[in-house]
Design a protein that fits this description.
By secondary structure, this protein is an alpha/beta fold. It is built from five helices and twelve strands.
Length: 193
Amino acid sequence: MSTIGVLALQGAFAEHINKLNSLGVDAREVRMPADLEGLAGLIIPGGESTAIGKLIDRFNLREPIVSMAGSGKPLWGTCAGMILMGREVDADTRGPAQPLLGLMDLTTRRNAFGSQVDSFETELDMPVVSSERLPAVFIRAPVVSSVGDAVKILSQLPDGRIVAVQQGNLVATAFHPELTQVTDFHAWFVSLT
């Protein structure tokens, strides 16, 4: 069976590993470039996007992650991971020196719903993942404010805000599937490997 990596520099990486393990999938914490070797895919978890971006650079992970994406292996960014995978952050929500991987042709808006106290749960339609509505947890979450032609919108809130996208082998969600009781999102991601 193939192994999925979870970037384990900061944020909700343990929860992703637990979800993968519950599906019988081998998961590996990724902290150094050597940890990426032999992986079938990579999850970039939620956390604080500026901190994660700086740690990616500090531990020389940028080039191997970009190379992994370019090789066609699936990558999935959740919440902060979505911000990092985009090419741009809306100017009025950009943090100080926000490092980005620039893998997906999208712009994100950080903290689009407000502060921590504005976190919420809802259910989303995401037909590529499930025929059922799925629970989604939003914690200081971003939204996608614009997409390029190659980006497919996978899910939107009722007000039209984009919260899940795919561009070839790259997936990004504004919410935290790892904090719900369902494994549908993780099972779908594993199916991309």
